Amino acid sequence: RTALVWMRRDLRCDDHAALYHALRRFERVYCAFVFDTDILDALPRRSDRRVEFIHASVAALDEELRQLAARSGAPGGGLIVRHGPAVPTIVQLARSLGVQEVLTNRDYEPEAIARDQHAAQALQAAGIALSDYKDQVLLEHNEVLTQQGSPYSVFTPYKRAWLQKLDAFQLTPYPVQCYAHHLAAPPAGERLPTLADLGFSATNLGSLALPPGMQGAQQLLHDFAPRMAAYQEARDFPARKGVSYLSVHLRFGTVSIRQLAALAAGQAAQGCAGAQTWLSELAWRDFYFMILRHHPHVVTQSFRPAYDRVQWDDAPELWQAWCEARTGYPLVDAAMRQLLQTGYMHNRLRMVVASFLTKDLGIDWRRGERFFAQHLNDYDLAANNGGWQWAASTGCDAQPWFRIFNPITQSQKFDPEGKFIRRYLPELARVPDKHLHFPAAMKPLELQACGLRLGQDYPLPVVDHASARERTLMRFHFLSAGA
Ligand code: FAD
Fold it and tell me: Which family does the UniProt entry place this protein in (predicted)?
């Protein structure tokens, strides 16, 4: 009996649910990945760090699968890689390989759910079964429910229930290696497409500290593990190496969420506050997957319907200034440059720039959400939508609408010496620390002393925060009746 494992956002061969079940139940198991033209053709640029990251991770996975098979004495191993529309491509491949079943890991995004339903029907018509497994999350949308059996919409009680359910069984890795001798070799003549074959060109990915593939993930984890204890106090400062930078690996499944959670849970159980906080972040990840799965309307609408009555501004010039890191608020501009130059943005800064777009510039969160979707290496619909709706106050368990970040005090608090700002805004290098957070407040003599020409070397602020704040309070005021 023969099976095909269809890999998507799970580009690894250790602790892999669908691969484990396939190898345990079938004598011959093929593995495949499809570069889905429905997704690739919709990307705005032909040079995209994510495509390059996936491409490199797919090549690494091909090699890892060969080595895994070789270690178990099997002749097989390797990955079959195709380029085309996902469903017809996988159906055609399954038929040509003569498999009885296609196994895959579950996805929770509305479009992916529709794709998988379509695939199940098309495969069934060809006499082939499709089965799917939990792999991407620790606990699924229907595993953590209130006593009444409904989904949570507030994080703290959700996390309490989530932690109770997260037992040793949930954290046990799938021992793929025990059955690796069932791995089949790809048909003769298979070759991996190059990036150019896919119609894409290289980016600056190679110059970023973001090694792809399973080994890249383990490298970052190895670097983070000893820093986990300090996570709680270091994680809010973008100039410090306080976070794990593993999000892109979680996005493409080059690391197992169970491996990460087991590490954190082990240290948390010994009272390590940093590990407890990091584990909470993994709970947020599950929480937003759960919200998206139960409430798919959030993709285009506010979680709380009343908030869709908020009147946002069109403001094309302000929008352009935000996108191009020209707002005149250094922390916001440095954060946007980090995004544009690297595809990463620190979590504290994601909150600051999202708040700035919605509450200082009065622009609809959906526009910012789409911009992040185009630029973030770790872009993930569930977490991104959750983060934007949190900052815009339209989401579940969101920042209350009257709580408005001050971009200057956020800067003073979380980048006190301006190290992060100077890293991304070298034009402000000579501005003294105390003025770096808001150079527009400098007097002419102070500007002259550091050689900064405001409006030329660095923009004047596009809005005044105090008046923008008043406008936002007016914008949201109709909700004060308790919506
Ligand atoms: P760490 O601090 O090391 O956290 C470890 C992991 O926990 C992360 O990799 C991530 O998987 C998860 N995590 C941490 N914080 C959150 C959170 N608030 N919500 C959900 N999961 C979380 N995260 C994404 O993975 N993709 C996105 O597209 C995304 N967009 C965001 C947009 C906004 C406006 C905001 C405020 C947050 C967004 N986040 C997103 C959440 C968070 O900013 C990133 O997960 C984090 O910055 C990634 O860096 P890290 O891996 O070093 O995180």
Answer: Belongs to the DNA photolyase family.
